[in-house]
Amino acid sequence: MADKRKPDAVPSSAEQVQKDLAKAGYLASGSISLVSYLAWTLGKPVLVEGPAGVGKTELAKALARLANRTLIRLQCYEGLDESKSLYEWNYRKQLLRIQVQSENSWDNVQEDIFSEEFLLARPLLSAITADEPVVLLIDEVDKTDQEFEALLLEILSDFQVSIPELGVVKAKTQPLVVLTSNNSRELTEALKRRCLYLWLDYPELEHELEIVELHAPELDRAIARKLVEVMKMVRGLDLKKPPSIAESIDWARALILLGAKDIDQEVFEQTMSIIVKHRSDLDVVAERVGVRLGDGALHAGKKPG
Ligand SMILES: Nc1ncnc2c1ncn2[C@@H]1O[C@H](COP(=O)(O)OP(=O)(O)OP(=O)(O)O)[C@@H](O)[C@H]1O
Ligand SMILES: [Mg+2]
């Protein structure tokens, strides 16, 4: 990216964030850019919640690109604990030091081996001890359990970590923190209170068209429009897993590769497994959307040939 913004520079307005995000390859709606701007200037974490594939993770990545900051990512999963997310003592190094200093008293050795030199920083600690401010992405926080959320509270509100053997490690630089959640469980009130909240949903038709065109610029405009119209129709059905923006982009790229001149019933049936990924959903979609395409209910594409 040509932009040489300093990692600690603050944006001037929400509109500026929107423009800069677009330059960084992310087309943000008004609410996305406003919340991002506020999070950045107020120094508050932002919790981005919404269905799969609507651009939650990508928002954090784009913010890192636009701010010219390193992205530190903590991918959450069930059972994630302190030693993988915050810090761990480097036991091997501690043992070696104990062996080398065997003539020293235990008190001296203990003081020595519980110092920063023997600490292994994991993503959360790395993010607050970085020399330059970073973007910290805590991805899919709903996959962890509530105990883990409690671990995050100190970092999110005070930007510090208490280590019993060492004391409090305060942030050297303040990260821009983005947490994402697929809403698979309700997050605790304590966590939510510390964050600004952004609900990301499937985009409006025109907005999705722009996103598809950004990622698949070679796709004929009329076909791209028809694609997003079909997507909207598919999402309107009662499916187990409605298709996301990620699937729209994949579908657009597949249509380019296949040289499709239109999305007619035949093309749709050949390619619909790119957007629908459940056996029962496939039947519903083939029947409800495939048949409508066969009727010529949507006319946006060019005629074949
Ligand atoms: N506003 C946008 N502008 C540009 N690209 C976007 C936008 N929203 C989504 N995308 C694209 O859509 C795809 C899916 O986005 P992303 O992986 O961020 O989704 P997600 O919400 O994190 O999904 P999941 O919950 O499955 O992790 C990415 O390729 C991303 O580039
Ligand atoms: Mg994601």
Question: What would you note in describing this structure?
Answer:
There is one protein chain. The chain folds into 3 domains: 14-79 and 130-199, P-loop containing nucleotide triphosphate hydrolases (Rossmann fold), CATH 3.40.50; 87-121, no CATH class; 205-294. It is 48% helix and 12% strand. It contains 14 helices and 9 strands. It has helices at residues 14-23, 30-42, 56-67, 82-85, 91-100, 106-113, 123-129, 146-158, 189-193, 205-215, 221-236, 245-258, 265-271, 279-294, and strands at 46-49, 71-75, 87-89, 119-121, 135-139, 160-163, 167-170, 176-181, 196-199. Mean pLDDT is 91; it is low at 301-305. Residues 56-57, 139, 180 line the site of magnesium ion.
Tell me briefly what this model is.
Helix content is 48%, strand content 12%. With 305 residues, the protein is of the alpha/beta class.
Number of strands: 9
Q: Specify the CATH homologous superfamily of the largest domain.
A: P-loop containing nucleotide triphosphate hydrolases
CATH fold node name of the largest domain = Rossmann fold
The overall pLDDT average reads 91
Helical segment tally? 14
* Number of domain units: 3
Percent of residues in beta strands: 5-15%
The percent of residues in helical segments reads 40-55%
- Please report the first level of CATH classification, the CATH class of the largest domain: Alpha Beta
